[in-house]
Amino acid sequence: MFKNNRLALKPFTEEYLAPILDLFQDHEFMKFSPYGALTYAKALIRFSEIKLHYKNYGFGKMLIIEKI
Length: 68
Hints:
Blueprint: E1 2-3, E2 7-10, H1 17-25, H2 40-57, E3 63-66
Antiparallel strand pairs: 1-2, 2-3
């Protein structure tokens, strides 16, 4: 994990499940994704895929957390 005084990069964890699922379902947030906004079921699958990839390979998509 990387962090500085403003940001932290963290792997996807259950702690962030609800807000991430909300983002994956948001049309504005997902407008540049090739798949667009996801249904709840597909958002849950995508979350699990990202988490599993990180577990299996030790790298992958990360959350950018702004410290306020």
